What does this fold into?
Amino acid sequence: MARRWVGLDGWEVVGAVRGGRQVLRVRRNGWVVADCTSVAEVAALVDLADLCEVIEFPARRSAAVTGASAADSGERTRTSSHHR
It folds into this structure.
């Protein structure tokens, strides 16, 4: 899984390969700003302290995928507090 960092005002930094070389691709609002070869180059564009790593958690297997109902698996179905 690729590592990704996001920051304020639409900044995003991801690892990429350009010309057979690893770079840190800096984007802002989805547009490529630069392919940097060092963290210092990234720091010239965006404040590194504002970046947070995005961690993708594995999806929970739902009862629909496993073929079991919520009652079979012992899970309680949750409803909105507005409907109690």
